[in-house]
Structures are given as C-alpha cells and as structure tokens.
Amino acid sequence: MDPHTEPSAVEVIRDPRDFQARLIRARHAGQRVAFVPTMGALHEGHLTLAREGRARVGPEGLVAISIFVNPTQFGPNEDLSKYPRELSRDLVLCASAGVDVVFAPDTAAMYPEGEQTRVTVSSLTAPLCGVFRPGHFEGVTTIVSKLFALSGPCVALFGRKDYQQWRVIERMTRDLLLPVEVVGVPTVREANGLALSSRNRYLSDDERARAAEIPRALGYAVREWESGARDAARIRDEVDTRLRAIATSVDYIEVRDADTLEHYRDESTRAVLAIAVRVGTTRLIDNVVLGEESAPV
Bridge partners of 271? Predict the structure, then answer.
C-alpha cells in the first residue's frame, strides 16, 4: 500500500486545533466520544481498546485514536529512533476496528518551538518503571494532558499491561479536574499468554520462547494466591527465580499495593505483582492483580 494513501473509511486529522474542533462538533451533535491515545505500531491490544470504546459510546458515538510517537517519554538510551512508524498499516487496522477519526500530528505541532511546560505526578511515578526510566512518566503525563486538552470530555481507554501508566494517568486526570473518564482495559495476550506489545516484534524466535515463561510465572502466582497463600515475599521470590532463568536482565519483580503502588503490607490492601525484564535487548513488562485476575496461562 502506498504509504501516503489513507483509507477513506477513517478521517485523518493532523492539526491539533482541527482535531479539537472535530470532537467539539461531535459532542454538539449529541455524540459521545471514546478516545484511545497510542504511539502507533498498532496490534490487537490497541484494537481491543477501540472496540471497548465503541461499546461504551454506542454505534452513534465517535471513536478516535491518536497516533503519535512521543519523544519526551524516551530516555537517551531508549528506542525512539527505531520505534516502528507504520501509519499506512495503522490506518487500515483502525478502519477494520470501526475507528472514526485518527489524530496523527507531527512533533512540532505537539511541542511548539520554545515550549517549556511539563506535567508531573509525584509518588505514583517513583517506584517500578520510575526507577529505571527517569523522566518517562513526566513525558507520558505531559503528552496525555495535551491530548486530553484537545479531546475534551470523553472516555479514554488504556491497556492494563501498562499498569503503572494507567494508574498515573488516572491520578493526573483526577488531580487536574479533567473532564475525562479513564478506563483500564484488561491485558490482551498472545496464544502463549505473552502480553501483546509493539516491542514483541523485536524478539527472535528463541527469545519469544523464553519470554513465554513470563505469563507462566504470573500464572503460578495467581494459583498460589487462589490457594490461600498470602506470603507475598515468598511468591515474589519464586517468580523472581523463574524469570531470572530466562531473562537477560531484570529491572524489577515486585508485589505492590494495587492502588497506591506502595510496598504491599498485608491482606487489608489489594496486591499487584508487576515485572519488568529484558529478554535479549527487548524490555517486557507485565502484571497481574492477585485475587482478582485469572492466570494468563
């Protein structure tokens, strides 16, 4: 397909103010709006978010997706330059999922010359990925706040694979009194249980086979919890042992309070087991809320 060809079934908007005006017109016409912010390289997880958006706003509503590779959430040694940019393919997938509008701005439109503003959420961003990706969440909250300023009142859908990101965006939205309902949608997985991610394409066949241990280890933790085990440290240590056997390196394997992301204390709090490991050079994250979510495999 010609990379400059855009499927007629999807309305593509590149100017931020045009996108804002389009959604205002939709609401004035009585349409509810669902919005899915993405960085493109779409997969079934993103399309699930779009379909969930459609279910929430109904057949007469409007479903919008943004496709923007946000430079401020990448660190100096991360994969901004090689992050896949496949707008033509993404538009075909959007059309297949019934998306109405795609917002695909360039960097200069979202970060005007001389820009100086960043949006920061404090304690929720400190642990887990915050330790290993300094500045990452500031980039996320900055771009999402810009996108929400443009989208206006809507329901915004995020995948729970990025659990910490979802919680951070929830907090930011409440704190800034933004007229957006933030919804976390359960993780979509491959047949072997591996969480879908745009970065999975970087895995070799051998690395993909090794990465399949991630959902198996999470499944072990789920079954232990379901059996009545509440020794979070012991469960965490067993998961750690299993994943270190297949991982090139480990950033974290932790049990945290599912709401605050503080250290898990006891059964009075909900628990999330969150992991970030590298298999080969690919960083993979995953999680499960113990006692609430089923085993991935």
Answer: 257, 290
